[in-house]
Amino acid sequence: MAKLKIGLVFGGKSREHEVSIKSVKIVLDNLDKEKYEVVPIAITKQGSWLIGEKGHEYMHQNLPLAHQEGGISIEQSQSLVISSGEQDLSNFSAGDFVNQKIDLMFPVGHGEYIEDGRLQGMFEMLGIPYVFSGTLSSALAMDKSKTKLIAKNAGLKVAKEIKLDKKQKSHPEKIVKKLGLPVVVKPVSAGSSVGVNICNDEDDLEGKISKALEKNNEVMLEQFIKGRELTVAVMGNKNPKAMPVIEIIPKVAGFFSYEAKYQQGGSEEICPAEIPEEIRKKVQKYAVKVFKALDCQDLARADFIWSEDDNKLYFLEINTIPGMTATSLAPKAAQAAGMSFPQFLDKLIDLAIKRNKKS
Predict the structure, then answer these.
(1) Strands of 36-43's sheet, edge to edge?
(2) Does the predicted model carry a pTM greater than 0.85?
(3) How far, in Å, CA of 116 to CA of 328, rounded?
(4) CATH of segment(s) 141-158+225-358
């Protein structure tokens, strides 16, 4: 049998560019070379596309710089781009993509342009199948406020919130009156906890809001729910199944921050979570419920807080392209479910191929 040609798309214009590079190296190392011919496709920080050998070179060149957010400068990101033609849609859609005859796109990235439906919409227009959720599901899941509305409509509990944009004036006293303290300040559309802060002081709130608005056009101010952080990966399509529950215990911050997620030893992940059976069943049921409500595909990971005040589970957000680094949660859940990393990747590819054959 001919090998399946997989396009590994990574990088991109979001603030999670560096995380994507670390993820794609691990995915590339774990894809079975007997089954797949892999074409690395790097998207630089300015949106240039580097396909094949150049994509591979981009990954290796920038991997040592990808240790922190912003570790790769614009100049370093653009160093392999010869001409502006490399970011011209007509150039790579009529040329490289067609000539490569890619069977399936596998996006390995997060945040805007990769995870928010824009890339998925482009693949659909080009008629190229891809792994993970579709255009609408991806766009909705990227907007935390809209996702919470859908989750609430599906019967899940969510924290109270206030949403502001750059044109609106913040009124800290009104915010605190409605939400109490602390207040969670987060960009509406960003992943990997980029721009997220917990504000314990009303006087500090305005500054934290301004900082979050530097990362995004809208900010969500959310009631802080004190409790245990639980996350559940859901895998499948017609009959999606919840994977083992993971409890996250941040070590370098008071919440699951960017540093807690990606810094070595930044958090402790207990898988399977040491929680009562009743809570385990309930959080897995809720994860599948929100996965279906958003019409997610192949794999997504839903995050919850198990409140110590009222013993309820509060839905936080869902990630349609979960992380694939050495410290990422979905691969850990897969391992707890009996799947090695290569088997986990095989399963994702198989789900996407079967789904696209039926559509």
Answers:
(1) 49-51, 36-43, 4-11, 104-108
(2) yes
(3) 20
(4) 3.30.470.20
